[in-house]
Specification:
single chain, alpha/beta, Rossmann fold, globular
């Protein structure tokens, strides 16, 4: 049997680049649940790691699905992003290895559910994550490897709460997974207004990196109509790659694996490989601008 990672690396090998001096912090946000934020974080992180990028996924969702989907048992989460947000532990001590070379995760626990209340009157409450990442980057190392991360992906909860605001305040750009269904544009408008407010008050450099159309069903005329509407509304901000509905993507988390390792040949995995390619190319364009 062929090694799944080698297959991924073969498909993406031409996209390798030198590690950046500072990481690109990409926050995956959408206040609507079930749109593919966590699935995208896991599989995009895996695809980037497969082309020898050093990637950190920060699980900022109390449900901790990104941590579980990467095979990290809840009993093994000694320190978590809750400890980081509370200032009890540096981010470096929360980071753990996954089964995927060059891909690490800072796991979440249900303790994060109380973070918003506990931080309500704390100093720099909207910059807790930004400060933690800055200290990690300044140290140029973490507790596992002396290396710089080229990408940090932040998986947000399905709401526009203080955790999400922290993620937006820390971000270089926002990735917006958007389900191809009827209420997509309504929810997208709310998120874009939030991004604009954060840009005006907390993070003047924040922008929308791109919109990822997820759960696309080519048999459903509505999916095509929604995709057309989003492209008409946001133009080039919408990635060309569309993530289809795919049963193998749905099955993979129950095995504690990204879909790219569970079945790298399925249509969902191939779509995430193409998405990684498109994001890297967009990054090159942004850096050249």
């Amino acid at each position: 049997m062929q090694d799944p990672e080698k297959n991924i690396m073969f498909n993406l090998g031409k996209l390798r680049r030198k590690t950046a001096k500072t990481p690109r912090i990409l926050t995956l946000a959408n206040q609507k649940g079930g749109v593919g934020k966590t699935t995208t974080a896991i599989n995009l992180g895996t695809a980037l790691a497969a082309v020898e990028e050093n990637v950190l996924i920060i699980d900022l969702d109390p449900q901790g699905n990104a941590s579980t989907g990467l095979g990290l048992d809840r009993s093994k989460r000694k320190h978590s992003t809750y400890d980081v947000m509370m200032g009890r532990k540096p981010l470096s001590q929360a980071i753990v290895e996954t089964g995927i070379p060059r891909l690490h995760v800072a796991p979440s626990t249900l303790d994060l559910l109380g973070a918003e209340l506990e931080l309500s009157e704390a100093a720099r409450r909207t910059y807790r994550l930004k400060d933690a990442i800055a200290r990690l980057v300044e140290g140029k190392a973490n507790s596992i490897h002396e290396r710089n991360y080229s990408y940090i992906l932040v998986d947000c909860p399905p709401s526009l709460n203080l955790l999400t605001i922290n993620a937006l305040a820390a971000a270089s750009s926002v990735l917006v997974p958007l389900q191809c269904e009827f209420f997509a544009l309504e929810g997208l408008s709310q998120l874009l207004r939030t991004v604009e407010r954060v840009r005006n008050t907390l993070n003047p450099d924040l922008d929308i990196h791109g919109i990822i159309l997820t759960m696309f069903d080519k048999r459903n005329n509505l999916s095509g109509q929604v995709a057309d509407d989003v492209r008409a509304y946001l133009g080039d901000k919408v990635y060309k790659t569309v993530i289809p509905r795919n049963v193998r993507i749905s099955e993979a988390p129950s095995y504690g694996k990204p879909a790219l390792l569970y079945d790298h040949t399925c249509t969902g995995s191939q779509a995430y490989i193409k998405l990684a390619s498109e994001i890297i190319q967009r990054e090159k364009t942004l850096r050249a601008a």
